Amino acid sequence: MEIVKVAKRSGKLENFRSIDTNTLTNEFCMKMHNSPKQDIICTKCYSFALLEGLRKNCVASRQHNSDVLSKGIIPPHMLETYLDAFMRFSADGELINITHLENLHNITMHNPHCSFALWTKRKSLINQFYDKRDKPKNLILIYSNARIDTVMKSPPKHFDRTFNNVTKENFVEQQNCTGQKCKNCLLCYTPNNGVSTIVEAVKKY
Fold first, then answer.
1. Which domain holds residue 160?
2. What count of other Cβ atoms lies within 10 Å of the Cβ of residue 128?
């Protein structure tokens, strides 16, 4: 029995697998989703919309991972080996706490052949953790910019890239994550490719 449940993705993430948590019970996500500021991308969160709607059946597995990853360190002998070349952390959900981050770090270290990409807005947790240890070479940290139509070009400390959401008619020439599937692009998943800024048009759900 897998201690951490892995999801098979579809749509933009077709052919990818991911390790996700429950957006609906994440205190950080709930606070951001309820922000009165309409230029905060979290107010338009696809994960909230889908887990409350078409993907209600995924909530139990996401909550299982939230509990397992945030409440204690998974023993090394219980970490699984994944045969994927690329995997995503938190296609649903966000970092819950340092314990969650440490478990993702350990999963990455246990699978050095796989490139893991983690999107997060919680740079304080990243700094708290990686100020004290080296980041694995196969972990790509992507800072998820919360502000719509404010393209952030320089990644924060420890991060490899920034991910920015813009309205469709703005920053058109900079949109390099619009209209294709991740498997046909891999900008986010390829280390040291010279690309530090990802820009995507906001989707409606």
1. 7-201
2. 12
Q: What is the pTM of this model?
A: 0.95
8 A C-beta contact, residue 136 and residue 108? yes
Please report whether residue 63 resides in a domain.
yes
Residue 177: its pLDDT value, please? 93
Q: Is residue 155 in some structural domain?
A: yes
Contact 200, 163 (CB under 8 A): yes
In total, how many domains does the chain have? 1
Q: What is the model's pLDDT at position 46? A: 85
In order along the chain (205 residues), what is the average pLDDT of each group of 10 residues?
A: 91 94 96 94 90 90 97 97 97 97 98 97 98 97 97 96 95 91 93 92 79
In 3D space, the residue among 79, 87, 135 whose CA is nearest the CA of residue 113 turns out to be 87
Strands (E), the chain: 7-8, 17-19, 86-89, 115-120, 139-144, 161-166, 197-201
Tell me if residue 120 falls in helix, strand or coil: strand
End-to-end CA distance of the chain: 34
Q: Are 47 and 23 in contact (CB under 8 A)?
A: yes
Task: Give the pLDDT confidence score for residue 191 in this predicted structure.
Answer: 87
**Cα distance between residue 156 and residue 153, in whole Å:** 10
Q: Judge whether 2 lies within some domain.
A: no
For residue 142, what pLDDT is reported? 98
The verdict on residue 1 lying in a domain is no
